[in-house]
Each structure stands twice: as C-alpha cells, then as structure tokens.
Amino acid sequence: MFEIVAHRGCANTAPENTILAFLRALELGADAVELDVRLTADRVLVVFHYFYLDKITDLTGPIFTRTWDQISRARFFDPAGSEIGIPLLEQVLDVLAGRIGLEIEIKGPETESVDVLASILQNHPKAWENLEITSYEPLLLKRFQSLLPDVPIDLLIPRSEPWMGRDVVAYTALQRGWMAGARAVHLHPSQLDYETVNRIRKGGCEVHTWDVNDHASMQLVQELQIPRLDTDALQLALAFRERKNNGS
Fold first, then answer.
1. Domain ranges of the chain
2. Spatial CB neighbours of 168, under 8 Å, sequence gap ≥ 6
3. Residue 62: partners with Cβ closer than 8 Å, 6 or more residues away
4. Contact (CB, 8 A) for 49 and 36
5. What is the spatial distance between Cα 54 and Cα 156, in angstroms, rounded to a whole number?
6. Which of 14, 30, 84, 235 could be cross-linked to 21 through a Cys-Cys bond (beta carbons 3.0 to 4.6 Å apart)?
7. Distance from first CA to last CA of the chain, Å, rounded?
8. Which CATH code fits 3-136+209-245?
9. Nearest to 224 by CA among 30, 1, 6
10. pLDDT tens digits for 152-173?
11. What distance in Å separates the CA atoms of residue 117 and residue 29, rounded to the nearest whole number?
C-alpha cells in the first residue's frame, strides 16, 4: 500500500509549511511531510512556498528581497497562525528529523539554494533516515546529487498542457528524469494511466504522484501500484488506506 505525504503539513489545521502543521501531520499518522525551501536576500534558507510574502503573510514583496531578520517578523493571515512565524529549515529539522519522513522541494531558481541545503543537511544526519529531495528543475537536482549523492532525488512534473497526449507525457517525463538523475518522477493524477506509468518504469524511473485529494485519485494510485502520494487531504488519505488495509 502507498505511503502518504502531507503536502506542506496538515495545512487545514495550521498555516502551511509551519512546524505546527508538520507536527499535526505526524500526530495523525502521515508517513512524511512535504515542505518548500527558498533563499532570503541574505542567503538564509526558509520554509515557504510562494515568491511573494503577501500571498499569505502580513509582509510584502518577494521573499528574495527580504532578509531573514525581516522575514522572521512576518505573521500569517490564518487566525490559527497569528502568532506563528515562517520557520528556518534548521528549525524544522531540529524538531522533525528522525521522527517522520521529509520531502524537501527546492523552489530555486538559485543554484546557491542547493549548496545551502546540502550544507544544512550534512549537519542533520537524522534527517537522512527517510528523506527525498524534489524540484521541478532538473539542473538543481543534478547539482544536489553531486554534493550529496546518497540522498534520493525526485523530479516533479508539471500538469500537462492541453495539446499533450499521454505518450508525450511519458516521454518528456522520462527524458527529464534521466537529465536530473532522478529515482522517480512525480506526476499529477490527470497524467496517470497504466501505459504512461509502465513506459516510465520500463525506462528506469519509478512514478510517484502529487495533488491526490479525492477518493477517485486515491483509487487510481492503488490500482497502478504507485508507492507514494502527496496530498492536501491527509485525513481522507489515511482513512482510505486504512479501509483498503482492512479489506473494505
């Protein structure tokens, strides 16, 4: 049965990408949490998804124009996070390393973000127990692999453009996966069928999937024997897996 990754933590109970959201996912029984990392203006790696801070916080502007000192004062609009700040990656690792799997997405586009991430991870060996590094950028993954070759890397594949058939999806995913040296490529449920998954596996890459947020997508993941899914609907995914494990 598949492993369940809580996308940005359990974000329906706490602000996304915060230690509180990650701890809630751990408490509920997720196998891993997904988190995003970005560089500040002074080259500090923080856990945050968006370029623009004002998307979900009271601080304005792109994250790469703000120093860590400025970002540390930001607060989330979410009422549950009014007293919670954006965490450093080191803070997340201090709390979670060795307790739950970690799926760290390098947002980039700076190559330097890879070097900073590798340096931080070298000081947190417990995090290596169940760790994968992901990105949409093959070159960032290739750079990371050259620094920490023992850590698995996976390539994220964006949603297909309307003109793309499943044959093109499989072909481009596999080519980009090879370019990155990826262990697996992560597809959206809309890109999944037996032929697509089989073609990629025959090419030497495993398939994982993201944005698996409803019963139909989870059923498809099970039927295709995909080993790992990323979800915003953690409780639903956990309940689905429990029912299937119990034979119902």
1. 3-136+209-245
2. 160
3. 51, 52, 53
4. yes
5. 25
6. 14
7. 14
8. 3.20.20.190
9. 1
10. 999 999 999 999 999 999 999 9
11. 26
